[in-house]
């Protein structure tokens, strides 16, 4: 590993000042489960690493406020998976957090790190898209909100501006009942990124929100507002056609070593149909 300076700021303004001073030569460290690997393998070589763990304003927290559930950026997967408010209103996010890596990884891996790393395979991305999350960013110009659907650009790149960091991820509390589920396909259990990740949510108005990842440069959200997909009594052929249309933005890379494009697309359809059934069932059980 090459050498770098290490900073451990105590406040958010200090972090922003450090980012301003060092620009692209700085990297933020949250849980380190992505960053440390990339420092070790030499794909990243920042001059300074800024540790977020002692920043007072960023201490891990899950809070309900103003009709939203705010999850602090440094909150780890273990805490998200176990939180009763997440499990009550955002079950698919709890399910996604519960399958990230292993127990050890989940005890370190943060929600902010998961989305800022911007892997197309990030497990929390599909549920955050389905639930219409907003990313709260802080930077030299103050604080702003970014809809999660506008956050991901491609692997490793987000729409954060230079000098910005994520302070929280906010989920609007549901105004309509929704049944939702997160599913994934990986080569083996645990310790592996998924070949396909998918979240499906069906609400009482009949809307279906389907988000999927690992089948293109960034996670995708597709919505059916016709009510047909969520209606088990609608003609099967029409439902199959709508479901197929929701997958049109899938474009898996042929260069991936994890799975071929044909396999990913086949799994996407299988998982999509399965998740849709589960989401409808969960809505009925609500
Ligand atoms: C063995 C193993 C298995 C894994 N399995 C999975 C899996 O199944 N599913 C999955 O989704 N991921 C998996 N991962 C990836 C990783 O654990 C997650 O992406 C994790 O959530 C990253 O969070 P972190 O806090 O460790 O991020 P870090 O490594 O600290 O940071 C990741 C990136 O985000 C930036 N960053 C961090 N926090 C912020 C912030 N607040 N604002 C702006 N930028 C920030 C960092 O600068 C860095 O570029 C796995 C990793 C390992 C090593």
Structural summary, described in words:
Helix content is 32%, strand content 25%. Strand 13 (208-213) and strand 14 (220-224) form a beta hairpin. The protein is globular and about 60 Å long. With 286 residues, it is α+β, with helices and mostly antiparallel strands. Strands 4-5-10-6-7 form a 5-stranded antiparallel sheet, covered by helices on one side. The chain has helices at 12-22, 35-40, 77-82, 84-89, 91-98, 103-108, 111-117, 125-130, 236-246, 261-285, and strands at 5-7, 26-29, 48-51, 62-65, 68-72, 134-139, 142-147, 152-154, 157-158, 165-172, 178-185, 196-203, 208-213, 220-224. It folds into 3 domains: 5-51, Uridine Diphospho-n-acetylenolpyruvylglucosamine Reductase, domain 2; 58-172, Uridine Diphospho-n-acetylenolpyruvylglucosamine Reductase, domain 3 (2-Layer Sandwich); 178-285, Enolase-like, domain 1. The site of flavin-adenine dinucleotide has 29 residues, from strand 2, helix 2, helix 6, helix 7 and strand 10.
Count of β-strands: 14
Rounded to the nearest angstrom, the radius of gyration is 19 Å
Mean pLDDT level: 95
Strand content: 25-35%
Shape: globular
Number of helices: 10
What is the chain-wise order of helices and strands? EHEHEEEHHHHHHEEEEEEEEEHH
Biggest sheet, strands in spatial order? 4-5-10-6-7
Bound molecules: flavin-adenine dinucleotide
Q: Considering DSSP H and I runs of 4 or more, what fraction of the residues is helical?
A: 25-40%
CATH architecture of the largest domain: 2-Layer Sandwich
In the CATH hierarchy, what is the class of the largest domain?
Alpha Beta
The chain-level structural class is alpha+beta
Looking at CATH, which topology of the largest domain would you report? Uridine Diphospho-n-acetylenolpyruvylglucosamine Reductase, domain 3
Unreliable stretches (pLDDT < 50, length at least 5) are none
Q: How would you sum up the major sheet? A: 5 strands, antiparallel
Number of separate domains: 3
What is the CA–CA distance across the termini?
51 Å
């Amino acid at each position: 590993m090459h050498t770098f300076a290490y900073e451990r700021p105590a406040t958010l303004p200090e972090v922003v000042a450090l980012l301003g001073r060092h620009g692209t030569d700085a990297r933020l460290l949250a849980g380190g489960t992505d960053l440390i690997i990339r420092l070790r393998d030499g794909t990243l070589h920042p001059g300074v690493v800024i540790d977020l763990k002692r920043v007072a304003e960023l201490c891990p927290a899950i809070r309900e406020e103003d009709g939203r559930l705010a999850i602090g950026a440094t909150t780890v997967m273990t805490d998200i998976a176990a939180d009763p408010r997440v499990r009550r209103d955002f079950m698919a996010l709890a399910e996604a957090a519960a399958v990230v890596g292993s127990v050890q990884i989940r005890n370190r891996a943060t929600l902010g790190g998961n989305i800022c790393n911007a892997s197309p395979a990030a497990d929390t991305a599909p549920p955050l898209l389905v639930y219409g999350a907003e990313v709260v960013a802080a930077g030299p110009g103050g604080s702003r909100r970014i809809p999660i659907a506008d956050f991901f650009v491609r692997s490793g790149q987000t729409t954060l501006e230079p000098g910005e960091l994520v302070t929280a991820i906010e989920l609007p509390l549901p105004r309509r009942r929704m049944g939702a589920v997160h599913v994934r396909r990986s080569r083996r259990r645990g310790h592996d990124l998924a070949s396909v990740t998918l979240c499906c949510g069906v609400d009482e108005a009949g809307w279906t929100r389907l988000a999927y990842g690992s089948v293109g440069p960034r996670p995708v959200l597709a919505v059916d507002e016709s009510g047909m997909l969520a209606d088990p009594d609608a003609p099967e052929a029409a439902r199959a056609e709508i479901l197929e249309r929701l997958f049109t933005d899938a474009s898996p890379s042929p260069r991936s070593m994890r799975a071929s494009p044909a396999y990913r697309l086949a799994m996407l359809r299988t998982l999509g149909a399965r998740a849709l059934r589960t989401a409808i069932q969960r809505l009925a059980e609500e």
